[in-house]
Amino acid sequence: MALQTTYMSSSGIFQQIHPWQKNALGAICFMESSVGVNFEESVEIPRLQLHAPILDGAEDACEIWLNNTTLASKPLRLDSYGAIRYRFNDEFLFGRITLCESESQQGEADISPLQQATESAYRQIFALMNSLDYPYAYRFWNYMANINGISHGLERYRQFNVGRKDAFLASGHEVRDQLPAACALGLVDTPLNIAFLLGRKAPIAIENPRQVSAYEYPEEYGPSTPSFSRATLLRTETDDMLFISGTASIVGHQTLHQSDVVAQTRETLANLDAVITEANRILNKKQFNLQNIFFRVYVRHTADFPLVRNEMQRYIGGTIKAVFVQADICRQELLLEIEATAGHILELVCTQP
Ligand code: 3EB
Fold this sequence. Notes:
This protein has helices at 10-14, 113-132, 156-170, 261-283, 305-316; strands spanning 3-8, 24-31, 47-51, 60-67, 77-81, 84-88, 92-99, 136-145, 150-151, 154-155, 181-187, 192-199, 204-206, 231-235, 240-247, 250-251, 254-255, 293-299, 321-326, 336-342. The protein is α+β, with helices and mostly antiparallel strands.
């Protein structure tokens, strides 16, 4: 068994000495408020701590990435590199980097702080990949403040795209058909926060036949195209893991169903279905479907949450495995974005000690 992911509450994480902790590569935690939570690094796993309301009532939700091969082999190691904290073994590395936008000001004055911070963050990540010999990035999670805001004559998401692309180009990673999966969301009042998953086995990059590849978007979406693929598929000896990028109501390169959150939900699910079908075609078996993948749903307007959930329920049927959080989406007209992981999802790891 290679990678596994699970969800638990942060109180579960902070309870001491859970056996799963020694297999945890890292965590991405969403929480409404930080009050009452002990943020001390009592748990030695790299953790992205994101301020975002959970829409189904929970106080917080942490996605934990586990590597269970380590049960039988060497323990995971924790280390840092520049502003990166990471945990790793011989197969996988999970890292996170947090940069304030004012921290990287040495550059030219006409380059925005967000663009500079983004380029700096990605350059550090690529340098780490080089120095530790993890040649492949499977997945990036990107969170920034005020993603639709405009400064320096450019929307902030587009500034992010310029900084990211420049770092990809500088390090030789801007290769079509070999880009990692990703998502990019806006949160209230956050520094630039990036988590990533690296490895030593090449993934297969997957595109969506219904969509223009993001790295080929026309210039109307900004001066630099977004450096990501629609999904990455990781085949190991024991199983296959699918990392699906943030997916939205985009067909071709155009946003569809402005102001209609139900129709956007349906279109997004059709896109997810198309990506899954593409993965199954490459695997030559019906491995993945909408019922056996785990979703994280980012909803722009809190009030839309019941409409999104109902439409997902209607479209997919059965029990859907999803966490819903409030976040801003990278195009002003987009009302939701859904990312997904398929492979080995643990239903529950956390039990009372
Ligand atoms: C889109 O399809 C919607 O910039 O990393 C989705 C996933 C989106 C990842 C990124 C952006 C990103 O263009 C937005």
